């Protein structure tokens, strides 16, 4: 069993037979670290810019069908069902505004992750403070809290914190 990377297509492509949707396919052209790539991702690849041929298996055609990947400045730019389309796309330089379009979802994701990391740290701090204060005074109840730790053991309290984190 080889280790491959996978390209996931947020907009599935149709096989040339028109009978099978390609939602993802495995590629061997990058570093084969079991990574999942989407269009707009930077790839860890020896290819700086260019067209790469890969293939996928179509259950309807019962064969491997070629597919072409365009990488520009190490950015996974697009996936095409013809070499001509891929080559034409690869010849146009990466525009500044295009880079912004690729970048923007990452910017949003970054802020979301930063926010949920801070929320998780604050929840753990809140629990530590609760444990310290109830050690001194078993009757202690926080005035403001996102959690009600009363009566919970450590495992239950941590599970509650994790559940809230996953909901964000
Ligand atoms: Zn097919």
3D architecture notes:
38% of the residues lie in helices and 27% in strands. With 168 residues, it is an alpha+beta fold. It has two domains: 5-92, no CATH class; 97-166, no CATH class. The strands form two sheets. It has a three-stranded mixed β-sheet, with no helix packed on it. Strands 4-5-6 form a three-stranded antiparallel β-sheet, with helices on one face. Strand 1 and strand 2 form a beta hairpin. The chain is elongated, with a radius of gyration of 24 Å. The mean pLDDT is 90. It binds zinc ion. The site of zinc ion has 9 residues, from loops.
Percent of residues in helices comes to 25-40%
Could you give the order of the helices and strands?
Answer: EEEEEEHHH
Number of helices: 3
Strand order of the largest sheet: 2-1-3
Low-confidence stretches: none
Query: What is the residue-averaged pLDDT?
Result: 90
Number of strands: 6
Q: What count of structural domains?
A: 2
Report the principal-axis shape.
Answer: elongated
Structural Rg? 24 Å
Fraction in beta strands: 25-35%
Ligands in the model, by name, code or SMILES, are: zinc ion
N-C termini distance: 36 Å
Structural class: alpha+beta
Major beta sheet summary: 3 strands, mixed
